[in-house]
Specification:
21 strands; 34% strand; alpha+beta; 7-stranded antiparallel sheet
Amino acid sequence: MMNRVIYLAVLVLVGLIIGTFISRYYDTIPTLRATPKLSQEERDATLRELQGYKDKSSQFVKLVKLVRPSVVSISTKKIFRGYIDDFFWGIIPREFESSQIGSGVIVDNKGYIITNNHVVQGVDEIKVTLDDGREFTGKVIGGDSLTDIAVVKIAADDLVTAILGDSDKIEVGEMVLAIGSPFGLGQTVTSGIISAKRNIPTVGRIAADYPDFIQTDAAINPGNSGGPLVSLNGEVIGINSIIITRSGGYQGIGFAIPINRAKYIMQQLIDKGKVSRPFLGVELSAINEALAEKYGFGSVNEFLKELQIDKIDGVFVVGVIPDSPATESKLREGDLILEYNNQKVNTPDELVRLINKSEVGKEVVLKTLRNGKIKTVKVTVGERK
């Protein structure tokens, strides 16, 4: 009996200790307090301020109403043959179907639409849905895998065409909207800023030949490909194309093809059904430590002395491709290209950009430095094969 009493007393004591600990612990957690009430004067001031925010937001509403009618949803089907193992009939042939979704921008009242090449390449059927709900069968006029630009045409009337801007004039930090059909949900608008203008090393050849993609944090997801990136003045400045992601969805880093490049490619696809690419046949490099080391110099300064210049200037020719326009014009390894058609160049990207804007078959003038002497070199732009 005595043991039972002692046991119960110990249990009560332990309970008291635990209860005291819990009560002290929860006393340290702050309690939620009611939000202080605003005076009528404070309420009126807050409502006026919020109305100002709404007035600014209405500008976005007007912008979307302006642009959305020129944005389309694109769904594609590809049919391929395969085989199934039937229990009764054995191996029999069968057709399978795969589908894909994307977006596009109406750029001409004749029915021309810019989209991404990867959206429509190699498909058997294209359905284009307009913002007003009308559906049309699309036809691929041409596609370019290098720039990921394609042109689709529909036979439709009463089309609203987009206003195409000048992507050379955009600035990092500008607000933009991305419009498209993510995951096939239909017209969706997201907002962000221009985060950077940069190359994309992960896509290799595309970035090397066509630098300065537009990076944005406006949400771009599968299905947005081919849709427009729009500035706040209602102009399309880019065609959304690529995302960098580990999850397969939006992670804040998307890239758009500058509209100036897209317009150039689009016009060639419409006019000729293919893209004629300008070609000089030079391998280029910036002047840097790696280049100095390649040629056996201990520093950039030593290399500059060899080139007989005082500071880093121009683009260095690392090599000349045999039987190319550069070979015919007598350009050679070690030349320093200072100007291209009277435009100064300081980086390989600047020079590549100018070359890409050149017309095949036209003559361009290069200002070069060789052995400390300025030379003028004329080159007839070739076509890349």
